[in-house]
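Support case: magnesium ion complex. Customer-provided input:
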Amino acid sequence: MLSIRNLKVSIKGKEILKGINLEVKAGEVHAIMGPNGTGKSTLAYVIAGREGYEVTEGEIIFKGRNILDLSAEERACEGLFLGFQYPVEIPGVSITNFLRTAINEQRKYKGLDPVPAVEFLAKMEEKKQLLELQEKLASRSVNEGFSGGEKKKNEIFQMAMLEPSLAILDETDSGLDIDALRIVATGVNKLRRPDNATIVITHYQRLLEYIIPDVVHVLFDGRIVKSGGKELALLLEEKGYEWIRSES
Amino acid sequence: MEKNQNNILEEVTTSDYKYGFHTNIEMDLAAVGLSEDTVRFISAKKNEPDWLLEFRLSAYHHWLTLTEPNWAHIHHPAIKYQDIIYYAAPKRKKELTSLDEVDPELLDTFKKLGISLEEQKKLSGVAVDAVIDSVSVKTTFTDTLSKYGVIFCSFSDAVQNHPDLVKQYMGSVVPSNDNFFAALNSAVFSDGSFCYIPKGVRCPVELSTYFRINAANTGQFERTLIVADEGAYVSYMEGCTAPMRDENQLHAAIVEIVAMKDAEVKYSTVQNWYPGNKKGEGGIYNFVTKRGICKGSHSKISWTQVETGSAITWKYPSVVLMGDNSIGEFYSVAVTNNFQQADTGSKMIHLGKNTKSTIISKGISAGQSNNSYRGLVKVIKRAENARNFSQCDSLLLGDKCGAHTYPYIKAENHTSIIEHEATTSKISDDQLFYCKQRGISSESAIGLIVNGYAKEVLMHLPMEFAVEAQKLLAISLEGSVG
Ligand SMILES: Nc1ncnc2c1ncn2[C@@H]1O[C@H](COP(=O)(O)OP(=O)(O)O)[C@@H](O)[C@H]1O
Ligand SMILES: [Mg+2]
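Agent response - structure generated as follows:
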């Protein structure tokens, strides 16, 4: 699904990612953990194709193809989804309108006709229930005046609607109370399929009690310094990131 | 043909021509430039009654004493008023036989706007099949309207067929000496529309529909008069989302609205005149005076405008709130791109008690354009408990464009409440990336964000136009963000 080889990234001349290697197969859930400021979001943005990052070395292969030359929207149309750590507000644009536009642009990329209205609305209904969303949420403007938890649920809702091959969820757990966390995690679990994959970025292991990862990576100072099974998350929680610092 | 016109031109310009308008009445073209004779010529040509000629002449003489206003935030080379031909009989456009002959760029825009093939033909001057020809539809409309006693006709027809109404109301809202451009229009106006809704009648059709079919007559000096008698209602739409080209660079229209007791007039505009090219060359100068008067108590006038065209827009649709408890509204989206300049806003003049007004203005600037909001809220002493709420927002795309807000407030009593809010924002990189990450291209993302921003205004447009206006906004800003 995704393989990243020796990825080095700088922002304004300062190296942030210092040689990342990562292999994610279809059907897997990977967790990336690490303290604040180590480059987790940077990695997510670079995979998603955000501008302003200088890739100085390495490659990102997604579904067998180097995607570094693709624009952010092309990568999205290829099946890449990023759940944002800080989702932005788009005043006056309803979630319904936003998602219909997104789905239709993705369909256009694949040479398909726009989604029929009935089919689209039925899907909205189904996914709303999956995530226990309020009826009126879909008619509200994208993220405008949403609570932290609502924003994160909305990210997962969009993921459910867009059905990506690879979803990267950047700190989706932060700002969620236990109930919301459970709902989000249940959503992610229900959307798991043998042909898709998820990367969960978090710095608490709490989320990983609900979303069981196949592999846990520890990102530290721009490098993946440790990888292991789900027990690594527990170990981290117990010993703290200081332990990694001393090990690395 | 051309030679013939030149001959006439020469004849007209060189002759003494004091009473020439009598002998040359068959001509299709007035002499170049503006003089008392030009005014007489136009009036005679249109077979107008004496009082209307007097109206024109006094406007002309007043115009001579005026100078072009220079307070607006716009710049343009001097307009050469003596180089303009002030009367030309409506020329039939050269009829094309198929859409293949039409500028492909124009067709592309039509397609993006979702305008039907038949309508595309009509708008670009291609001959249309008899079946869809608008004449029959137009007749149906006129029949329906006359059943309700609604008068809706060209201004010239109204002068001939309803002179008393025209005489009573024309110039009663925008006097001929109101301002430079209004005086000019009053002297030389060519034609326009007249609409009268009798007492207690709710006009059964959106007059917009009619306009779409009728492909609005858009003269250089257009004049519109709408009168809603007691308890009447009408929704009126002018303009067209399709880009309009016109060889006349200067446009100076007047729109007057009168709402009697309990009457309501909803006036919507989509203005998409040719804005000039990307370098800022050419384009229409649009200097318009639009004003309504809420004459009776509990009357209401609301202006909704979407301005995307013209090189220069100078326009302040206003409401004089004379009747107690009357309501004035102004909803505006003005887009400027490349080198366009817009100085637009509204005036709400509160004369009656408990009068209420709302101003929602959304400016969107891109390229190297300049977009100004200019508004006046005036409350006289007698207008107790008047209320105004103004919201003026500016959205900037890029960093070479300008947005300016000039709100003027004059309140002469202490029982009134006037609120003004203003914001300036940009489309952020975060918003764009968020959209792109969902698969939405930059251009679509801008369209989406801009339409969200303008939603409060667009929702006041008649349904069928709202959808087109949304597409129009997106198209107007294409290519404005790399
Ligand atoms: N746009 C930016 N400009 C400059 N520095 C940045 C930018 N984005 C991130 N950084 C820096 O890169 C480092 C990694 O940040 P980030 O990827 O957000 O970390 P994490 O998500 O792990 O908390 C930090 O030192 C941060 O200050
Ligand atoms: Mg982060």
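The domain at 2-247 of chain A is CATH 3.40.50.300 (Rossmann fold).

Case will auto-close in a few days if no follow-up is received.
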